[in-house]
Amino acid sequence: MGIFSRRQTAVIEPPSAVAAGRPGGGASAADASLDPALRALTGHWTIDRPHSRIGFSVRHAMVTTVRGAFTDYDSALYFDGARPSESRAELVIRVAGVDTGVEQRDAHLVGKDFFDARRYPEMRFRSTSTVHEGGESFRMTGDLTIRDTTRSVDLQLDYLGSVMDPFGYERAGFDGTTTIDRRDWGLVYNQRLEAGGSMVSEKVRLQFDISAIRSTAQPL
């Protein structure tokens, strides 16, 4: 995802010609309707952190929403504009970089009740499949690992467009969302309210506001 970051942290190798010839490796009916501008985006990308946000939101005390973001992560993206099913992504997040705007709350999140950052310093998302749902919408399925527990999640992705920025970087934008139940990853801490309900909702909405820049081939 000067002002624009020049750091390039990522690569995932593109599929081989053999993979493209596998059953299911060809273009689907939805792929055939792809905008030519999407096809031109084929290649390696990395998330430009200063202009992206890996965020989350969760209901607090049943009546309000707390929002936060992870500020320290590395990314590896490969987008195939002709065969989106061959696209893939990997994201490694260092949980100590969580930021909700309140130091005491951040310290609680990285402690043993939640992420336990000393024992489990990273969480990871690695895609397993990508489906073009038509137009500029995609569904990416992947394995999300938190506290050494891995579960499959579906991420809804919408392509926002691409541009050559004033610094000569080719840049593409995507919005992604999914909702998870944190208990599936062992994040079970909570407090019950006298009036009923819980202090922190089990449902967490993850939000990916991605500005990606085209990158050279480097390992994550």
From TrEMBL:
Q: Which domain of life is it from?
A: Bacteria
| Lipid/polyisoprenoid-binding YceI-like domain sequence ranges | 44-213
- Any Pfam family from its record, for instance, is YceI
* SUPFAM superfamilies, alphabetized: YceI-like
Protein family per UniProt: Belongs to the UPF0312 family.
Name the chain's protein: YceI family protein
Species, as recorded: Streptomyces rochei
